[in-house]
Amino acid sequence: MGLFDLFKRKTVAEKNIEYLQRLRKKTIVQEKKSMMHEMIVGSFHDSSLLDEHPNGEGDFGLVKSNPIPIYGIDNIPTYMDKLRYKYTSKSGSGTSTYNPVDFVRTTDNDKYRVGSKKPDNTPVASSTSSTNIEGHIDVYNLYSMGGEMLAKIYVNCYSLRTSNKVPSDFYHRDDIPVEKDSKLLLEVMKNKAR
């Protein structure tokens, strides 16, 4: 960077990117000390502090034998805030955005399949287990902004850390450009409407 670069004016696009970066930092759901902390450390739990359970087997997060480590049930929103799915415009422009997921707790043997519509009522929810994982495993269905089921994921809330890894076919919020993150774009529209 030269001396004259200090006096160079930023373009509108550069200012917009900086604004979206600040907005992302402001709107991230932060991990907090779990209210379950004492219960977690007082029972069988994952103390590895890794993004993936050391005993996990199979597709990360998509099978109960390799659930996503999360630091207590109260940090589920922290993890879900990291998840994005790619949406390509159907208008023919080919533009893509990365949208946040909606999630509903469910059971391992629910009747919902990828592509089905989000239920109007909250379904019955229960935990499941896997012989290679300590603690209960909770099940969540992930939905698009339009209410279409994207995947069923498995989480283990008996971990001392919330994973930063995302299941295949999903994207981590921090790995996508801020100008393509529709959570931020919606926040900008909401702020302008005020």
Summarize the structure.
It contains four helices and seven strands. With 194 residues, the chain is of the alpha+beta class.
Count of helical stretches: 4
The number of distinct β-strands equals: 7
In the residues, how many domains can be counted? 1
Query: In terms of structural class, how would the helical and strand content be classed?
Result: alpha+beta
> Segments where pLDDT lies below 50 for 5+ residues?
none
Percent of residues in helices:
10-25%
The spatial strand order of the largest sheet comes to 1-6-5-4
Structure description:
The protein has helices at residues 12-27, 37-41, 76-80, 182-193, and strands spanning 68-69, 83-88, 96-100, 102-106, 138-143, 149-156, 171-172. The protein has one domain (32-193). It has four helices and seven strands, in the order H-H-E-H-E-E-E-E-E-E-H. Helices cover 20% and strands 18% of the residues. The N and C termini lie far apart (39 Å). It is globular. The model has no long low-confidence stretch (mean pLDDT 92). A four-stranded mixed β-sheet has the order 1-6-5-4, with no helix packed on it. With 194 residues, the chain is α+β, with helices and mostly antiparallel strands.
Question: Which properties best describe this structure?
Answer:
7 strands; 3-stranded antiparallel beta sheet; 20% helix; 194 residues; 4-stranded mixed beta sheet
